[in-house]
Amino acid sequence: MDAFTPQQTIELVSRIGCKKSQMVWHKLCWNSFMAGPLLGFGCAVALSTETAPWYQDNAPSLIRTIGSVFFPVGLIMIVLSGADLFTSNVMFMLTAFLHRRVSFVHLMSNWAVSFLGNLAGMLFFMAIITGYGGIFDITAYRTEVINFATQKMLTPTWVQIFLRATGANWLVCFAVYISISSREIVSKIVAIWWPTFTFVALGHSMIPTALGNTLGGGIFVGGMYWYLYLTGPESEDIKFNVGDLDSAMEAGGPIGPSIRKSGPNTPNSQEEKDETFTKGKEPGRGHPNHVGSLPSSDQQMASGLGRELSAEAYTHRKGEPSLIEGRAV
């Protein structure tokens, strides 16, 4: 099967969370901002589809199902472009935190910046694209948007909104999780599509209710798979096929070092490289491009096509914890 195992996948989720904790704040802000409009496009298509009058009166379930088919486009664009979505960052950061790779301060700061960035991006989309662009100027479209917002915010109780947000982000984070297990684009798109389609068809709330989103995505996906696969003796030696891992896609780019330079402390044999990569050992801290390094987002990327994400050990930077053997010290 051309996919990562569940244990390998949650290990990659933890490493991605570790990478995200290193993003400089202004890049995280803009990357989070970009997720708002991308998700907005998917919402706009779904709402436009559900405005058909005859179907609303005679086949409301059918038109909801048809609209649900188009909504995942937004999440697919976010995952493939590498934008930071708060609801998926809940899973990434909490998994890395439970794995003791990021601090609580990094966890909360990432959540806060991505939440506010998503909100700003969605407000921009609503005001500029749909407002001045006149996408919902037609009466039927405007009525559907108002009814949709009323059903989400005013009709249900607080507990119902919380539970719907829990179910929604459970499925969203599971979609992102299984997309990471896929190794090529088509499989990622299919993996994202069905869980996202499911929560929209069921009518779960996608309002960013922080507590429900954290419970659904952080605990039921990130926390559960962390407990299953990254705790206990079986977590000590997670095997990867390093050659194939280089071609795997992280959110926005390939996972694994694209440049391997030889040096006095660089492992030479394939066995040493495999052990270095999977266990997060540091083969040569004096070498700026050693295999075990995880470059920070404010440095020049080694590849112009994606973000490098190697083993969890990386050099200590002033003001940030040093991660050695996958644990903060």
TrEMBL record:
InterPro entries: Aquaporin-like, For/NO2_transpt, For/NO2_transpt_CS. It is a multi-pass membrane protein. Its main location: membrane. Residues 253-329 are annotated as: Disordered. It is found in: Membrane. The keyword Transmembrane helix applies. This is Formate/nitrite transporter. Residues 275-285 have a biased composition (Basic and acidic residues). Signal peptide: none annotated. One of its GO terms (biological process) is nitrite transport. The chain crosses the membrane at residues 28-49, 69-98, 119-141, 161-178, 185-204, 210-230. One of its GO terms (molecular function) is high-affinity secondary active nitrite transmembrane transporter activity. It comes from Cladonia borealis. Belongs to the FNT transporter (TC 1.A.16) family. Keywords: Membrane, Transmembrane, Transmembrane helix. One of its GO terms (cellular component) is plasma membrane.
